[in-house]
Write a sequence for this structure.
């Protein structure tokens, strides 16, 4: 038990799932600095394609055709494309044709990559989405013009179709591919943790990673359970609207920051979890639950994941009975009545507030 000032960082007590591969370290470090515990399970890995025959063939086609318009969608992808061209001995030729092209960018990061390469951009869309970038291109007019689109893992076929329908001669460049992780077990553990309400939030930094988590859950017949958890008890946070697309198609409503940046993503996690803080007035005092952290007056303690899940269910019931079956579902891997009794006993010992958790014989438990 801790006394005095108990909450000094906004994510103390919370556990956050991270599905990212690229830049996962930066995101995890930012969450940990704010007090969170992190479960990292990359749902996909980025496979660079510097030696990919298809990428080199498209690069040669870009050089041969001299594009009128180039749409750069990500800094990582645009820089990776130039690096792959350099490695294949095509760097100078590609740079020359890009200098003669009109380059439009999806956002500040892709603009930074273009300028870092010694190139100039002509502008961008109204917001940092592929759709707005295509809107800008269509306003310029693409009929009969050669347009190159640098893809970024998640292929927005609708936007490509808009360009083709407007008469563009379209070339698409994919500087990297998304591949399954070498080991699926971390992802399956993440799915179990979501379904078991062992996490408070899950973050997504790419649409392919979001889609891959949903597919992984379907593959092990846990899809509906995963969606139920993400749609109710667990905050789902996506870095931007493109990333949120697969989640929205699945019926979820992820939180999305106004600015599509990792820092803004972390701040959104803090805001969303602050809104989910639980509190209850009981016969023995007021309880506040922040993830696994319980605050009781000037005292605080960290509960086990099972204890926190049980207490959260009791608080949400607002003094009403929570039946045993519902509480058993919150235990890792489920559990029988004995396992539930042991978990409740541990919760009572941790709280050290006699009468705070009341047994309703043969039926379940409620707050006192």
């Amino acid at each position: 038990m801790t006394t005095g000032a108990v909450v000094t960082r906004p994510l103390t007590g919370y556990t956050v799932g991270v599905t990212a591969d690229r830049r996962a370290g930066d995101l995890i470090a930012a969450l940990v600095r704010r007090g969170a515990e992190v479960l990292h399970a990359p749902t996909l890995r980025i496979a660079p394609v510097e030696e990919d025959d298809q990428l080199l063939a498209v690069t040669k086609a870009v050089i041969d055709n001299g594009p009128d318009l180039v749409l750069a969608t990500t800094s990582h992808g645009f820089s990776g494309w130039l690096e792959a061209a350099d490695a294949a001995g095509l760097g100078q030729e590609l740079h020359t044709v890009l200098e003669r092209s009109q380059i439009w960018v999806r956002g500040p990061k892709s603009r930074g990559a273009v300028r870092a390469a010694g190139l100039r951009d002509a502008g961008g869309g109204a917001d940092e989405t592929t759709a707005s970038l295509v809107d800008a291109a269509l306003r310029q007019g693409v009929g009969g013009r050669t347009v190159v689109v640098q893809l970024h893992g998640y292929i927005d076929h609708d936007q490509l179709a808009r360009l083709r329908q407007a008469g563009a001669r379209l070339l698409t460049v994919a500087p990297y591919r998304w591949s399954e992780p070498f080991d699926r077990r971390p992802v399956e553990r993440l799915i179990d943790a979501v379904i078991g309400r062992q996490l408070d939030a899950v973050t997504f930094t790419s649409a392919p990673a979001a889609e891959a988590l949903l597919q992984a859950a379907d593959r092990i017949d846990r899809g509906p359970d995963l969606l139920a958890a993400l749609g109710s008890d667990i905050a789902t946070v996506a870095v931007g609207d493109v990333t949120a697309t697969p989640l929205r198609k699945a019926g979820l409503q992820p939180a999305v920051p106004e600015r599509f940046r990792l820092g803004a993503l972390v701040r959104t996690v803090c805001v969303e979890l602050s809104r989910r803080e639980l509190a209850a007035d009981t016969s023995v005092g007021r309880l506040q639950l922040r993830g696994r952290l319980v605050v009781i007056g000037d005292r605080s303690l960290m509960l086990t994941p099972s204890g926190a899940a049980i207490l959260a269910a009791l608080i949400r019931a607002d003094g009403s009975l929570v039946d045993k079956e519902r509480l058993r579902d919150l235990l890792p891997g489920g559990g029988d009545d004995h396992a539930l009794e042991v978990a409740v006993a541990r919760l009572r010992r941790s709280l050290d507030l006699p009468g705070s958790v009341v047994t309703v014989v043969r039926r379940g438990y409620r707050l006192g």
Notes: Confidence is low (pLDDT under 50) at residues 1-5. The chain is about 45% helix and 20% strand. The longest helix spans residues 337-351. The domain at 47-178 is CATH 3.40.50.10090 (Rossmann fold).
